What we know:
This protein is mainly alpha-helical. It folds into two domains: 1-126; 127-445, no CATH class. It is built from 19 helices and two strands.
Amino acid sequence: MNLLSLPRAEVAIGIPIIGAILVRTVRDPARADRVAIVSRILVLVASLFAWASVGTETALCPWGACLTFFGRPIFTVDRLSGSLLPLVALLHVLTVLSTSRVKRNRTSYTGHLIGEAARLATFSCIEPWPLIALLAFSTILPYIEMAQRGLRSRLYVWHMLAFVVLLISGWFAVESKWSVGPILLLAAVLVRSGTFPAHLWVVDHFERAAFGTALLFATPIAGVYVALRLVIPNAPDVVLQTIGIASLVTAIYAAGLAIVQTDVRRFFAYTFLSHASIVLVGLELHTSLSLTGALGMWVSVALSLGGLGLCLRAVEARYGRLSLNRHLGLYEKSPMLAIGFLVTGFGCIGFPGTAGFIANELLVDGAIEANPVVGVALVFEAMLNSIAIVRVYLLLFTGTQNTSSVPLDVTWRKRVAMLTLFALIFVGGLAPNVWIHERYEAARSLNLFPEE
């Protein structure tokens, strides 16, 4: 038996489900934490194995173990999803490693593991109706957690309800050959991605939900996957141009608001909205450079934003909600987190030497080739985000001497998470050929641009 013949996607999805069942049988929070860590590491290994086996000619279902939908496999690890599964798994591993001891007692490991399984299933699903069902199910889990904590979630509920209704009606219209179908799918993508004016739910979700839950729900940028699988193959050029214009407006608007925020979570929410919108802008530009850059930005931004959020979450775990009305001077308390903030923040904006640099360059060059105005707008958006990142760093970590007696030590688990992020961001920036070529092949496999 060849290991490459295993149903790779199903194995990666099944491990967190088994882990969730095991966690339910454990009463000790410390043991539950260890079970969750081991489960997520195994998921990461399985997803890396699935990525490494993309393109192999071995059978996928030797025992009929693959799930099917009307005779067609539901889950497939292809060029697009190959790198997304390890990305999702890694974000979950880093989140559980960086969770402070105080928060572990309040963490729902079962819910997080089920959520991981749902996200892995979503990013490996290629059949439209099962994909829509998984996207709808994924929106329920954050609501359950907020309801259990007694948090208001009206804004989130109404937007997610609109997203699901638009998604279902849009695909039904596409199958019925109605011209309104792509428009409804476009609206669903814009709502899920937090595109202006449907962006308020993202900010509200980061403000009210647990920071870790909001990070894991938002940073993989599921709206881009929906656009690639459902919208772009069926949409006329005018729909794609609408995505590009709305996303570009959102990117600049959110970057401008990120500069003036006085709350750390709101700053992060607007930074996320700006970068997620840039990925959608790149998908609308029909050049090989911009499309490859957009798919590269998707991976690098998700990784960098996830790391930036985890740094802020670690500081917040010690000091509570952070205000940006004054300098806090936390560098001496924890230089590791300060360095982590800079590295991940600069990774988001494509600083030279980081993984986002080459992807950002490809995206901007492709945009200038397609439309110089869009290219200039992308440069302006990057400038605004750079100002916002540096401003928040100076307010949080410099400007005064912090005399608080609250310790801000970084445990070995947080050090492992930070060093892993540093390695991926810098290796991706200093040796980008392999993963950029992989993103190019992913775009070509989806026929997003003609053969050259």
